[in-house]
Design a protein that fits this description.
By secondary structure, the chain is of the alpha+beta class. It folds into 2 domains: 2-75, Nucleic acid-binding proteins (OB fold (Dihydrolipoamide Acetyltransferase, E2P), Beta Barrel), CATH 2.40.50.140; 85-236, Recombination protein O, C-terminal domain (de novo design (two linked rop proteins)). Helices cover 36% and strands 24% of the residues. It has helices at residues 85-100, 108-123, 127-141, 186-194, 202-217, 224-236; strands at 2-16, 20-27, 31-37, 57-62, 67-75, 163-167, 171-174, 184-185. The chain has a 5-stranded mixed beta barrel. It has a 3-stranded antiparallel β-sheet with strand order 7-6-8. A hairpin with a 3-residue loop joins strand 6 (163-167) and strand 7 (171-174). Helix 4 (186-194) crosses helix 5 (202-217). The protein is elongated.
C-alpha cells in the first residue's frame, strides 16, 4: 500500500529502538493505522517537530500488513493548542479512539467529530459538555448508538420525572432501587438526546451513564488518561 499525503492526526507515539518512533495515526480516508517513523531522531531533516498531537497533517506511507513506514509528512492546518485541563481532555479523547477504533476502517464522520472536539477543547468553553457530545457521537458512528428515548420493557417514551438505568447493548430500564445500579432521570436523558440545556443536575448523571457504557465497550480495561486526571485532582486537593 502506497499512500500519498492524506489528512491525518497522530493519536499516540512512543520511541522505537534508538532512532525511530511508532505512531498511532487516525486518517480521514484510511481510518486508524500504525506507522513507524524511521530515523526520526537522527535524520538531518528531522520530522519530529511536525509529529505532534493535535496537529493536522498530510502523511504519506508505504508497506503491507498492519505496520507501515512513514515516507513523508507536511502540516495541513494550524495546530490546535490545548492547555491545562483541555490538554488532559485531549489525551482522554485520543486514548478512547486508539482503544475503540478498529484498524483500517475509514470513519470520515469520526474524523469530522474529532476536529470539532479539538476546536471545542481549544476554546475551552465547556469541556464537560464537549466530551459528553463527542462520546455520544463516537459511539453512534461505531454502531454502539445509545437508545435513549424509550425503555425496552414497555417501549414507552421516557418521562422527565421518572428514573431509569441503562444497560449497554440492551437499552433503558425503569430504575428500581433493588437493581443496585446507577440511575438517570428522564430529564437528563432528554438533555442528552437534544444535546442542549445541560445543567448541574443533568451533566453528572450523563457523565456517569457515558462512563458505564464506555467501560462496557472497553471490556473493563482502564483508561490511563482517566487515572492521570483523577490523580492530579487528588494532588490539587
Amino acid at each position: 500500500m502506497n499512500i500519498d499525503y492524506t489528512p491525518a492526526f497522530i493519536l499516540h507515539q512512543r520511541p522505537y529502538r534508538e532512532s525511530s518512533v511508532l505512531l498511532d495515526v487516525f486518517s480521514q480516508q484510511y481510518g486508524r493505522v500504525s506507522l513507524i517513523a524511521r530515523g526520526t531522531k537522527t535524520s538531518k531533516r528531522n520530522k519530529s517537530g511536525l509529529l505532534q498531537l493535535y496537529q493536522p497533517l498530510l502523511l504519506s506511507w508505504m508497506g503491507r500488513g498492519d505496520l507501515y513506514t512513514l515516507t513523508a509528512v507536511e502540516t495541513d492546518e494550524p495546530r490546535y493548542i490545548l492547555r491545562a485541563e483541555s490538554a488532559l481532555c485531549g489525551l482522554y479523547v485520543n486514548e478512547l479512539m486508539v482503544k475503540l477504533l478498529p484498524l483500517h476502517l475509514a470513519e470520515s464522520d469520526v474524523f469530522d467529530a474529532y476536529k470539532i472536539i479539538l476546536l471545542s477543547l481549544q476554546e475551552a468553553d465547556n469541556n464537560e459538555i464537549s466530551l459528553r457530545l463527542f462520546e455520544k457521537r463516537l459511539l453512534t458512528h461505531l454502531g454502539y448508538g445509545l437508545v435513549l428515548d424509550h425503555d425496552v420493557e414497555t417501549q414507552q417514551q421516557i418521562e422527565s420525572t421518572q428514573r431509569y438505568s441503562y444497560q449497554a447493548d440492551v437499552g433503558l430500564y425503569p430504575w428500581q432501587q433493588s437493581h443496585n445500579r446507577p440511575s438517570i432521570s428522564g430529564r437528563s436523558l432528554q438533555h442528552l438526546i437534544d444535546e442542549r440545556d445541560f445543567d448541574e443536575q443533568s451533566l453528572p448523571e450523563i457523565k456517569q451513564l457515558m462512563r458505564s457504557v464506555i467501560h462496557f465497550y472497553l471490556g473493563g480495561k482502564p483508561l490511563q488518561s482517566r487515572l492521570l486526571f483523577s490523580s492530579m485532582q487528588r494532588y490539587a486537593n
